[in-house]
Amino acid sequence: MLEALSLSFFQNALIAGVLIAVAIGIIGPLSVANRMTFMSGGIAHATYGGVGLAIFMGWPVLGGAATAALLAALLIAWISYRNLHRTDTVIGMVWAVGMAVGVILTDLTQGYHPDLMSFLFGSILAVNGTDLWMMTAFDLILTALIWYFYYDLLALGFDPVFAALQGVKTRWLHLLLLVLTALTVVLAMRLVGLIMVIALLTMPAFTAERYVKTLAGMMGISFLLSLIYLLFGLFLAYRFDLSAGACVIMAAAFGTILLFFYEKERELK
Fold it and tell me: End-to-end CA distance of the chain, in Å?
């Protein structure tokens, strides 16, 4: 296993794992606190439409995915503000249509098709130097924004109605969270894949919520758990030649179950 550390592609994957863990550790608890899990899933799956369009048009895949993710986030936000009681229906439509568009455009593309499994389920071979720089820049911007709006976001997650009465721009903050979630999904796509990124957004945050009572504490524990799951999953993927995303999510599922029973046993003592 140690020989993997000498391989440049695996080094890139490990660095990407650390950078993605930072974004997941921040966005995951915010998504859970603001009950945005289903919205995040809709954005993640709609992103595949952008992947298909980029392949069809010969554009950079990351740019197409980011564009589709942002459009999905804006569409979900706009319709949910106007028809709050139909938000779940709209998300389901965006989810399904985005995937369908991606599949159709990929089928219509002539010639060589990139490895689509790497976009859906992640790949340790997919990360390059440009991706790492983009992940680093995004982490810095994300950390700065969350630090600046921390107390407003805390109020938004606790009681959005009260926060609005106190002058917090709740709709703007909600839109900002959706946009940041969309970009996190796109960057995590390289390692985890679009299908499984929603699980990584929720499982560490779910576990962290049971051990701490503050949003900052949730972010810290969520980051550590995400880092452990990502690194362990990457080593499993390399060792057994499996999809990186599937290995990461299985590591996260095992860790979540283990910590859940540990907490239950501790409560009984």
Answer: 39
pLDDT tens-digit map of 136-195: 999 999 999 999 999 999 999 888 888 888 888 998 999 999 999 999 999 999 899 998
C-alpha distances out from residue 147 to 19, 72, 215, Å: 17, 26, 12
pTM, entire model: 0.93
Nearest one of 155, 178, 192, 179 to 13, comparing CA atoms: 192
pLDDT digits (tens, 9 = 90+) for 97-141: 999 999 899 889 887 666 677 888 888 888 989 999 999 999 999
Is residue 233 within 8 A of residue 247, CB to CB? The reply is yes
The backbone torsions φ and ψ at residue 114, rounded to the nearest 5 degrees and listed phi first, read -60, 165
Q: Quote the tokens at residue 5.
A: 């550390």
Provide the token pair at 118: 């790497």
Q: Hey, what long-range contacts does 109-114 have (CB within 8 A, 24 or more apart)?
A: 109/55, 109/56, 113/55, 114/55, 114/61
Cα(93)–Cα(106) distance, integer angstroms? 20
- Strands (E) across 99-150 are located at none
**CA triple 260-220-207, angle to 5 deg:** 15
Instruction: Identify which of 250, 257, 245, 209 has the alpha carbon closest to the alpha carbon of residue 31.
Output: 209
For residue 125, the SS3 value is coil
CA separation, residue 226 to residues 13, 30, 100, 118, 192 (Å): 14, 15, 30, 20, 11
